[in-house]
Design brief:
The protein is α+β, with helices and mostly antiparallel strands. The protein has three domains: 188 residues, no CATH class; 93 residues, no CATH class; 86 residues, no CATH class. It is built from 16 helices and 16 strands. The strands form seven sheets. The protein has a three-stranded antiparallel β-sheet with strand order 7-8-9, covered by helices on one side. The N and C termini lie far apart (75 Å). The C terminus is likely disordered.
Length: 490
């Protein structure tokens, strides 16, 4: 039927009511098929125990049941693991004497699943909270919770007269009810959970691969919340763009980016929105007297990364951290004089030894300072330069008041998180003076050389010249930061 419907292109011609009914029917069929998959997975698990040469997994050339399920169903590793987990919850053993099936761990929910009223997501949502506290919940209470959850999954309101019917709940509803039950059955569960969380907390930075270092970890809720607040303070909700809620974190709070667990494997890998640097696009339906409003095309994950970079740079500037080797924990990026003169090549990060593009050294030197160290042919240090090029606190405060935030049009990063950019490079004779400094956020400072935006100083005030699609006449425009305070009337 489905093949014929696709072949005849019937679905595009359906009415709204027919499309809604089609989805409802497909949902019921899907729940039925998921029940079949779980029951078949039960058999795979039972037949993959015992002697290795007699296991079903061995005959099919797999190491464990999840691998065989993944191969046969055609799902991913996570989907196969969910089927195996569900199979353990509804597996029935046979009695030793008569061979009759004994009740499953969650017999009532299994019956709902067999009837097609409960799918894989609903089964796991209902049982996961109880399983997490299983050691502190008695078997009698677990069986009663199973019964009540099964009635709820069937759409039966046990609290009403005559067990009145109600709409079939979603998996999220089952999860909420299960957590409420656990709160009553295991009131002291928060403390053991906190102990487990304290033992399991970690954060690690992997080795650089393909130009990026993967990070992974498990953050305590309050640490994740504090980080999310800092990131959200930078990600202005008015900045529209190519946000993908499925990547690395729906909001900074989502942290599955698995916020608790952030890995570099798929974080915005498919997006190309920010490749090539800043690429604002005009919005045809949003015009102001000052020109078009621009859209930031970075993905959500890319914005979160850049916000984290700004947070780290701001923290390093505070000089509140313990010193390392008698100095503040300062990032050092080294490059040869020849590469600096040529403007291209590789640089090396002092702490890790990782190779990075020369642009990283140029940005670090622009926002921080350059110390020249000369070596002879044998590698002996023969000269150490002490020339500084860092904007001091008074200069930075003045530039902050003048610019109010990142000077690139459309950027909403406030001044507190910005770096001071030498408009005329220090290497080209540019002074460390307020007349030569402009605020740029970390992202725009890093990618300015890749874009068509150009900055100049006009009588001590920054001006920008944008791409031709922004201003075909290529005029210079005085920057207008959204954070800049407007003068009082009169």
């Amino acid at each position: 039927m489905v093949r014929d419907a696709f072949g005849a292109e019937q679905i595009p011609g359906m009415s709204d009511a027919d499309v809604a009914e089609l989805l409802a029917v497909a949902g019921r069929v899907q729940r039925r098929m998921e029940g079949v998959q779980v029951e078949a997975t039960v058999q795979v698990g039972g037949r993959s125990a015992g002697l290795k040469e007699e296991r079903m997994t061995t005959r099919y050339g797999c190491a464990k049941p999840a691998d065989l399920v993944r191969m046969l169903v055609g799902t991913d590793t996570r989907g196969a693991a969910r089927l195996v987990r569900a199979a353990r919850l509804v597996r029935r053993d046979r009695g030793i004497t008569d061979g009759v099936f004994l009740p499953a761990r969650y017999q009532a929910l299994r019956e709902v699943m067999v009837d097609g009223d409960l799918g894989l997501a609903g089964l796991l949502a209902a049982t996961d909270p109880i399983e997490q506290s299983a050691r502190r919940i008695s078997d009698e209470n677990r069986v009663e919770a199973d019964r009540q959850l099964a009635d709820f999954a069937r759409g039966i309101d046990a609290g009403a007269d005559g067990d009145a019917p109600r709409p079939v709940p979603l998996p999220e509803d089952l999860g909420v009810l299960a957590r409420v039950m656990v709160a009553y059955l295991d009131p002291d569960g928060a403390e053991p959970a906190e102990e487990a969380a304290m033992r399991g907390r970690y954060f690690s930075i992997g080795k650089v691969k393909d130009g990026a270092a993967p990070v992974r970890g498990s953050l305590l809720p309050e640490v994740a919340a504090q980080l999310a607040l800092l990131i959200d303070s930078l990600l202005n909700p008015k900045v529209n763009g190519a946000d993908d809620p499925e990547q690395g974190g729906e909001s900074a709070n989502g942290t599955s980016t698995d916020a608790g667990t952030t890995d570099g494997e798929s974080t915005d890998g498919e997006s190309t929105g920010a490749r090539g640097g800043v690429r604002f696009e005009p919005s045809a339906d949003e015009e102001t007297e000052e020109g078009p409003i621009f859209t930031d095309t970075r993905t959500r994950g890319q914005k979160v990364h850049d916000a984290l970079a700004a947070i780290l740079n701001t923290a390093a500037r505070t000089d509140l951290f313990p010193h390392l080797g008698g100095a503040a924990p300062t990032l050092t990026v080294s490059a040869t004089a020849a590469d600096l003169a040529a403007g291209h090549g590789w640089a090396r990060i002092g702490h890790t030894g990782d190779l990075v593009p020369l642009t990283a050294a140029l940005q670090t030197g622009c926002a921080g300072g350059i110390q020249r160290i000369l070596f002879d042919d044998h590698g002996r240090i023969v000269s150490i330069g002490t020339s500084g090029r860092i904007f001091n606190a008074l200069q930075r405060r003045a530039i902050t008041i003048r610019d109010g935030g990142c000077v690139i049009p459309g950027c909403t990063i406030p001044a507190t998180w910005c770096e001071v950019h030498h408009v005329q490079e220090h290497a080209d004779g540019g002074p460390t003076h307020t007349d030569n400094g402009a605020l740029l956020c970390w992202f725009h400072h890093r990618t300015l050389h890749l874009t068509e935006w150009v900055i100049r100083m006009n009588h001590g005030v920054p001006e920008v010249r944008g791409p031709a699609w922004w201003d075909p006449h290529q005029h210079w425009h005085r920057t207008r930061s959204p954070h800049h305070r407007q003068p009082a009337p009169g």
